Each structure stands twice: as structure tokens, then as C-alpha cells.
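Researcher: Here's the sequence for the chain we discussed earlier.
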Amino acid sequence: MKRKFRLLVLLSCFLVKTSTAQVALDSSNLPIVIINTYGQVILDDPRITVFMGIIDNGTGNMNHISDPYNNYNGEVTIEIRGSTSQQLYPKKSYGFTPVDSFGNKINVSILGFPEESDWILYAPYTDKTLMRNTLAYHLFNRMGHYASRTHSVELILDGSYIGVYELQEKIKRDVNRVDIAKLTEQDTLGDQLTGGYIIKIDKTTGSGYETWTSGYDTEVFFQYHDPDENDLVPVQKNYIQDYVQLFETALKDPDFADPDSGYRAFADENSFIDFMLIEELGHTVDGYRSSCFMYKDKDSKGGKLNMGPLWDFSSSFGNANYCNAYNNEGWQYEFNLYCSGFYPHVPFWWQRLFEDPLFADHVKCRWNLLRENSFTTDSIHHWIDSVALVLDEAKERNFEKWDILGQYVDWNYYIGETYQDEINFLKDWIEDRAIWMDANLPGSCLPTFVLEDGGNALHISPNPFTQETSIYISENNHSESRNLLLFNALGEQMMEKNFEGKEILLQRNGLPSGIYLIQIRQAEKIIGIGKLIAM
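Model: Thanks. This is the structure I predict for it:
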């Protein structure tokens, strides 16, 4: 039976009518966002100027409607955002920008996040756990990548309680977001022209953005994101289009796996691996083909195409009833094969990449490492339970406002009668999906050596690493000289270092990105092994 949450109705409460119930909000453990439109209607376009106040007394403290606006207190420009969501769902998402008294946008810190001017209030509606987006971003961040910082809040709009929202950082170039070079209209020659670009593969509905299509599939649509088409000059648009075309052409070439002339000359392999693994773990129905971001920095800063950041996972983790997305078996990158009538398409990239045995091996090794650490079933379940606990009170108000528990909402696969049902389904689905991926990911990882006398696992930190990492072995007898040997996924020796003691600091020194096996030998005997990832 659906539980009902009751609050004492005090004179200081907000008592608001909704489409389904009268919801009272006096206090919350979540920050409270209050918007006053001055009687205006928030549109998809153009933006309007409204008042916003945010109450946030800090973690562990309650926030009351009567408290001062101590986190933000001023005007913002605001618009409705989203494509399918704004057409189908009554709970709308918003994009907003703080502005000064002259209407100029300003950078501010909101809820402790780094200062910026572009923010999103995302409305979880069809996702009744209220956390699928945040879960995906959390996991991607644990993998060592930037993902939008998020914070659950409760929203009051023009005196009406609207529900639980997620404050999110908009994806854009910034030292605290996608940390790539700033590209200006003057950057039209040499290295300055080569970065930084954020582009995306996306639907053409709801965006209004200028697009171009893949040279190999006219149902794959690319868009300029940051800078957008209005801030790019023709030579810059042509450059990034040509670069994507070169990458696709390299993938189509018979020698596509050649380390010098193949796809690795244009793409950062590790970012493709991690992006693919999180898309597949979520079995995201829009994965690879919608809200699919990628970026390119200047050539002097690496200059290859990187996948990410992640975006829009509300229909992931079993929360869609079409195109096999509900199934915890099968590969999302094969979407075009079993759901051919849907557009846009998934690019051919991913199927082609798995034709490279080395790529498949790297994927397998990376997955195995994640499953031993950040992606264990227990750690994911613990995170879900911890977020559900934080949402415990606010979610009751949300589902009073939006009486959808036990009801079908486009495009739910599972319909739980209670919030806990929804949480249990999410946990069970992810556990089953990960187990299936354990057994079915192609490729093979370097064998784990069985060492005489038990041997030692190495302690490696940081891992993954970029410039240097510390490798520690806990073996007691350390009076003799030791050798560290590093092997790539093909079993080729890449490095050898001599050291004494229990610890060695390993420098990158031009080592290519990839997954490596470390052996520690003493007197020709292997006394320790470990896996190392160079990003």
C-alpha cells in the first residue's frame, strides 16, 4: 500500500494547490528553491527574467520556508528545456542563468559548486527513483571523468509546490567543467584552430541547433554545443566537421586498428572505453545517439576526440519499455539492428571498434578492474540506498504532487506500487545487468598469475594515473634488489625498472594510454602483480 506522508500544517507553511493534492512545505532537509515569475509564463523561448531565492543551511541542517535566502537571492533568466520531456510531462525542466541588475549574466557559486553562469533544474518525472541521472554521473565520476555535479532540491514556483528537482551543472567549457581551451572567433589558424570544441550527437527536435550528418549514415546528427553555431566562424565549423570525418574514415579503413594511422590517431581510446561501459551498464535507450557529448582540445594539449560527459540517463537502468532497453541482456551499441525503425541511429563506431581485438581486450580489462572496485554490486547498492535515505521525506511530497506511483508514465517498463519497489527494481536490474556483462563482454584480459607461496597484490595509487603513480608491495623480505616489469595487453614488455625496498614511484615518460600488467620480480621469482591504467 502506498504510504502517505503527513506534515503538521503551521501558519508559516506554504499551502499550495496542485493537480492532485494540496501539498504543504514548511521545512526540508534539501535546499529549497523559490521562483517568482512576476506573473509571466516560462517558455521554451525566449527566456524571461524572474526572481530566484535559494535556502541552504548546510548538510545536516533543516531548511525552513521562513529562513533568509542565504545561497542565492536575485534575478535569473529562465526557460523550459528538454525535447521529449517538455512535450510529454507536466513537470518541466528549466535552464537558468543568474544576472545582475543590468541583465548581464554573472558567475555565481550555487550550493557549493564552482562559480558559473549556466545551470539546470532537472525534473525527474518518468524516473520514479528520482536518481538515475545522478547515479550515472556518480559512476562516471568514480571512473575518473568529469560529470555534472548535482544536488537534489525542492522547488516552489509562484507559490506552488512543484516537487523534487536536481540542480545540475550545464555541460560547457570551463576549468571546473569540461576543462579544455577556450575557443574564440579569432582562433582560426594553426594550433589555435584545433580546440576546444564540445559537440554532440542528438535529436533534431527541441534543439533548434545547426546540424550536420555523418558521412556514413545520414541519420546520425552532429551539433555544435560549446561554442554553439552562433559563436563559431565558418573555418572553425569546417575544422571540427572535417576532424570527425577523418576519424570516421580512419575507422572504415582496412587498417583501422593501426596504432599510428588508424582510429587511435584521432580518438582517445580510454575515453571511448569508459563511455561505452557506462552506456552499456545503463543499457540506455538513447545511448550513443542522443545527448551524446564529445570534446576536442587543442593539438598541443592532446587534441584527440574524447567521449563525454554523460547526459540524460532518465530512461536507463531498465526504465524504458521499448527497443529492448528494459532487458538486462544485449548490447545498446547494436540498437540499429533490432530497432531499425527508430531515429536517430547509433553511429557505426562501436561495432567497428570491437572488431579490433586489442580494443576488446582493453574493454574487458577495464571492466574487470571496475568490478573489483567502483562497480561492485555492494558499492552501487550502498550508494542507491544512501541517496534514497536523503530523499526519504521530500519524495513523499513529490509523489503527493505527482500521484504517479503505481501508474504508467511514458515509457515505464516497471511500475512499482511504492517508492521502495522502484528502488528495489533499480538495484536488482543493475545487479543482473552487471553479471550479464561479466559473462558476455568480448575480449580477454591478461591472465592473473598464480604465485608461489601466495604472492602479493600490489597497492597502486593513483590508479588510473596520468603522470606518476606509487607502487607498493607488502612483501617482508626487501633486502634484495627488485625489478618492476610492465607489459601491455599484448604481453609485450614496455618498461623495466630496478629498485630496492617496498615502494617505487613510476613516471609516465611517454607511456601510451592503456591497461598494463605489472610484475615485481626478485631473484627471478614473481613476488607481486597488479593492473595499471594509464589515462
